[in-house]
Amino acid sequence: MNINEYTRVILAMIELEIRRIMHDRTELYLRAVQPLLWLLVFGPVVGSFHSIPTGNIPYTDYIMPGVLVQSTTTVAIFFGLVVIWERESGILKKLVASPSPDVAIVMGRSMAAGTRAIFQAIFIIPFAVLMGVTIFPNPLYPLAALIIVFVASSGFASLSIFIASILKTRERFMGLGQVIILPMFFGSNALYPVSSMPPLLQLFATVNPMTYIVDALRGLLITGNISQLPLDIVVIIIFDAVLISIASMSFKRIIE
Amino acid sequence: MNDLAVDVRKLSKKYGTLLALDRVDLKVEEGKLFALLGPNGAGKTTLLRILTTQFEPTSGDAFVLGKNVITQGEELRELISYVPQEMSVWMDISGYENLLIYSKIYGLSAEERKDAIRDSLQLMDLADAANRLVSTFSGGMIRKLELACAVMIKPKILFLDEPTIGLDPATRKTIWKKLRALNRESGTNVFFSTHYMDEAELYADEIGIMNKGKLIKVASPEELKRSVSSDLVTIESGSLISRSVASHLRRLKDVSCVEPKGDIVEISTRSSEESLGGIVKSLLADGVVIKKISTRKPTIDDAFLRYAGTKGSSQDVGRLQELKRTRERIRRG
Fold it and tell me: Is the CB of B322 inside 8 Å of chain A's CB atoms?
């Protein structure tokens, strides 16, 4: 157990992911289509009803952080497919037989997904601006937002690795991916304020980590109101810690 | 105990009710090329994976280079390299990048890394292809890249699970030449599994025959062949071989077994060269017309057949096809 060992495995895996993205960005482009539709079609159309209380923010601006989170979470959740591929090939066996501790492998694979999510965000944010979304004018805030995207997506990737270690095949996994993302998305403050939800859904929204991620990003990217940010960060870190631990514990199961 | 590369004592592994390893005892000295030979499902992979600390045995002990695989896994993993049977490189980056990432995972320093990557690429003849995406590599090149990853970190012992499965004979030969050179020059232990008898015979210093979770026999290829002892003489005649003909043959010196099968008779003898004269004389005396004579020296196949009681390579054809398909599917992503 030493920090260097962890850092080097994690950095190597982040580098691997960046090299992978440099060779082939198709997935990034394809995954950008969906969020762009939300911003291009859903936002303006629903916004034109003026039925959702968003304060004095245009509706498209309001949903932009949520759409961003949905998109980067999708990237992270489907990272489990990469891990399943690595299981079907012998890569995971080889990693397990290498000196890297399991926790470092899980963290490395998760943060690789976080890295991919950052690339996704870097792609989506300028597009949103082009479509007229006003980003809060403080250059440090978007930077902080990217860090939130990275950390949150890493947590979801750990969740994905945990699921992969149970399901083990890509077919089952494909089905489950959407089943996880959509309820979290609709049961959060991504498209409407929590206060406008029925009581039961409100309860779900308050334990839904996505609510906190969206809140953090909305504060940083749109409203500039970061009063809730410390709470959001605490929730996201707890979420990460729990999922990384669970994924690491079940990691060996994936290769058996 | 320190001069043993592998020391396995009463090792068993159960998957549910299936006994994958059944009280295996094995000692392999340092510096050897050791082959585990056996049909699929014999337990070879299970043994390799326990030795590479991927999971724990149900009972028994195993030591690699004097380190306990269960309690000293962390130290042990610094000393070993493992190439699984399946493809184990990333397809969507280049060969060079694969080595780079692995070297970083293993914590090679920046200076070490440069030389190690260059040397291993050269050793495996991949220097020219290094910057191509692995997805454009042939099966043989991918295997060489996997081996390059494994040797790059200069392990004390190299564990290879079916290293040449699905490769053409020429590539198999080159790979073995390189592994053998590595073993002879740097003393790297090589512990591999295979179901190719010829490979075990040609390249291993010692062979362990496995079947149904049991390690049945450990010996050098020469010893194994000798222990099978008899040559086989097959005589084809135009007419049915009668019982009296067979019984005359049985009386000959050094002949251990005579099996008439219609117009063919198979004779086992200590040495076909020495017995052939007597056999022919006896047959002619009985008025048997000889159409064809063939003799065969024992091979590892025969030894395998004797110890494992089953044919090795033939039944693996289906499995091999399946593996090729899986590899193909994995390559396509």
Answer: no
| Interchain contact A172–B (C-beta under 8 A) | no
**Residues making up chain B, counted from first to last:** 333
In A78-219, alpha helices (H): 79-88, 91-96, 102-130, 140-167, 170-186, 199-207, 209-218
CB-based contact, B311 to chain A, within 8 Å: no
pLDDT per residue as tens, chain A (256 positions) = 578 889 999 999 999 999 999 999 998 999 999 999 999 999 999 999 988 898 889 999 999 999 999 999 999 999 999 999 999 889 999 999 999 998 999 999 999 999 999 999 999 999 999 999 999 999 999 999 999 999 999 999 999 999 999 988 888 888 888 788 999 999 999 999 999 999 999 999 999 999 999 999 999 999 999 999 999 999 999 999 999 999 999 888 887 7
pLDDT averaged over 10-residue windows placed end to end, chain B, 333 residues: 84 92 95 92 93 94 95 94 94 96 94 94 94 94 95 95 89 92 93 90 93 92 79 86 88 84 86 87 90 85 75 50 62 55
Cα A52 from Cα A71, distance rounded (Å): 22
Does B230-297 carry CATH code 3.30.70.920?
yes
- Best of A27, A85, A94, A256 to disrupt the B interface (most B CBs within 10 Å) is A94
For strands B59-64 and B67-68, give the pairing. antiparallel
Interface predicted TM-score of the whole assembly (ipTM), two decimals = 0.91
Where do the domains of chain B lie?
4-225, 230-297
pLDDT tens digit sequence for B203-222 = 999 999 999 999 999 999 88
CA distances from A214 to A67, A80, A143 (A): 9, 22, 15
CA angle, B284 then B285 then B289, to 5°: 30
- CB contact at 8 A, A175 and A32: no
Give pTM, 2 decimals. 0.84
Contact: B87, A9; criterion CB under 8 Å: no
Which token pair is A202? 């409100």
Which residues in B26-56 are b (16+ Cβ under 10 Å) and which e? bebeeebbbbbbbbbbbbbbbbbbbbbbbbe
Rounded to whole angstroms, the Cα distance separating B165 from B324 reads 9
Please name the residues between 171 and 200 in chain B that touch chain A, using a CB distance below 8 Å.
Answer: none
CA-nearest residue to B84 within chain A is: A90
Angle, helix B95-105 to helix A3-23, in steps of 10 degrees: 160
Q: Which residue has 């890295």 as its token pair?
A: A115
Give residue B13's Cα distance to chain centre. Answer: 21
Phi, psi of B168 (to 5 degrees): -75, 160
Superfamily per CATH, domain B4-225: P-loop containing nucleotide triphosphate hydrolases (3.40.50.300)
